[in-house]
Amino acid sequence: MLKITVLVPSYHRPDDLRRCLQALTQQARSPDEVVVVVRDSDTETQAVVKNFPKESLPLRWVAVSMPGQVAALNAGLEAAQGDIIAITDDDAAPRPQWLERIESHFAADERVGGVGGRDWLYLGGTDLEEGESAVVGRVQWFGRVVGRHNLGVGEPRDVEVLKGANMSYRKTAIAHQRFDTRLLGSGAQVHNDLAFSLAVKRAGWRLIYDPAADIDHYQAKRFDEDQRDQFNAIAFLNAVHNETVALLDYLPPLRRLVFLAWAVLVGTRKAFGIVQWCRFLPKEGGFAGRKWWLSMQGRWQGVQTWRRGKGDRSQTVEQKAIASS
Q1: Exposed, middle or buried, 225 (CB in 10 Å: 0-12/13-18/19+)?
Q2: Rounded to 5 degrees, what angle do the CA atoms 319, 67, 16 make?
Q3: Residues 6 or more apart in contact with residue 254 via CB below 8 angstroms
Q4: Phi-psi region for residue 252, left (φ > 0), alpha (ψ -120 to 50) or beta?
Q5: Is 280 helix (H, G, I), strand (E, B) or coil?
Q6: 219 and 129 in contact (C-beta within 8 Å)?
Q7: Domain ranges of the chain
Q8: Predicted confidence (pLDDT) per residue in 234-265, tens digit
Q9: Confidence band (pLDDT; 50, 70, 90) for 316?
Q10: What is the CATH number of domain 4-222?
Q11: How many Å apart are CA 32 and CA 238, to the nearest integer?
């Protein structure tokens, strides 16, 4: 029988964390271990873990001093003892069948390196985003990423990208893999899940998306420059940079060139190329021009980061766990 560790990075969201932990007590397949990673200065979150009923969950916490989700996730990977490491956010509440569905896919095929599922997304923490999508977690041939993990329907299928709020990995598949320390951002470090899942896929493992391995995801406040509901130039540039690094790592040489040409000429609404700039110019005016310039800066900086060396993406976090209980 496979042993499952649930890994939850948490920072200054005690009420959300309590809800997440409570949901884990309701799993049809109980976790063998729950590891919460907290900042060493975040005594409020530490108190939630310390005071949570010990008989309810096999729970412990690991503290890190380095800011950012990448450091927290890497510390959690170092500490996790399970054969499967299931990762979710502190503002998520896995549904009762979550771990049971995840385990079934790993048990069925030793080639499966990762499993994820739908996150029923509550915008602003309250409003459920409606919709359905048959296409989820793909990188199109020219480099555009199609996420839509919160809208996926249908049968389980192979994908290229898993979402950070709902993803799990076979420990042997990530034995030499860590979250990318090159990524920018002081908190969320957007697209760290993209980079990680593409690295596992590139290594030859199958990634499965199963809509029935689902969670409720209540978007909570972030404590960095990326605030979701308002524009921030630094967060915008960081996201474009991080996506660029992840895709350049993943794509073969010819597709890298196609991706860069498409990114400059077309782009997306979250990373403007010339076509997107023209599309949004009538509505946003000079703001569209600012987004385009930031997008070009992010792409250029991403290329430079990638060129400086790909080896850094496998480094373990420098700040090891400094306390646990």
Answers
A1: middle
A2: 115
A3: none
A4: beta
A5: helix
A6: no
A7: 4-222, 233-310
A8: 999 999 999 999 999 999 999 999 999 999 99
A9: very low
A10: 3.90.550.10
A11: 36
